[in-house]
Design a protein that fits this description.
It is built from seven helices and seven strands; from the N terminus they run αβαβαβααβαβαββ. The protein is an alpha/beta fold and about 190 residues long. It has one domain: Aldolase class I (TIM Barrel). The chain has a seven-stranded mixed sheet with strand order 1-2-3-4-5-6-7. The relative contact order is 0.11.
């Protein structure tokens, strides 16, 4: 609460994320109830997958949702995530609950940068008017310090070049998707 003045000025609040926030819902719910009583804006960062069907129970407390949209191909879901899930299900629940969404799209060169992926982002934006904006998040290879041993071997992908970032901008412009940000800069559609 010591930062309450900052929240009032910035319009910010508390964001719950990390791993899959929905997996921590009982704890988050308890915290969220206290924060809501104090008038704090709450954001929940989710993967777009809700196998335990908890999303509906979050809506009385959460103001804004950050929803990941990683892949648009069933084959890529299977290859990179090991299973397919349908982010449309989560987005439909949030639309029907009149909840604001920021769609977050991590882009990885040679993985999910094909034109069809940008077409799918456009379709999501058109289908769900509660998506306030789209954040394109270029992949970065952030490595953990050497003293931490990874349980699983980690695959690092190619970091996008400036040319790749420009190509992504041109894809957004081609699709005519408004309210899209790349590295916190809005892509202007003329």
């Amino acid at each position: 609460m010591k930062d309450c003045d900052y929240y009032e000025t910035s319009g910010g609040g508390v964001s719950f994320s990390g791993g899959e926030a929905l997996n921590q819902w009982p704890f988050i719910e308890e915290c969220a109830q206290v924060l809501k009583q104090k008038g704090i804006h709450l954001t929940l960062d989710i993967s777009g997958n809700d196998p335990a069907h908890l999303l509906s129970s979050t809506m009385k407390l959460i103001d804004l949702y950050l929803v990941d949209f990683k892949l648009s191909s069933d084959n890529l879901y299977e290859k990179y995530l090991g299973k397919r899930f349908n982010p449309y299900e989560c987005l439909e629940i949030l639309r029907d609950g009149h909840k604001d969404v920021i769609l977050r799209c991590v882009l990885i060169p040679n993985v999910n940068e094909e034109s069809t992926h940008f077409d799918e982002i456009k379709q999501l934006k058109l289908s769900f008017p509660n998506i306030m904006r789209v954040d394109l998040l270029p992949y970065h290879a952030m490595k953990k310090r050497q003293q931490f041993k990874l349980v699983n071997e980690r695959v690092f992908f190619e970091v996008p070049s400036k040319e790749t970032l420009e190509h992504w901008k041109s894809e957004i412009i081609r699709c005519g998707i408004r309210d899209v940000f790349l590295e916190n800069q809005e892509i202007i559609i003329k």
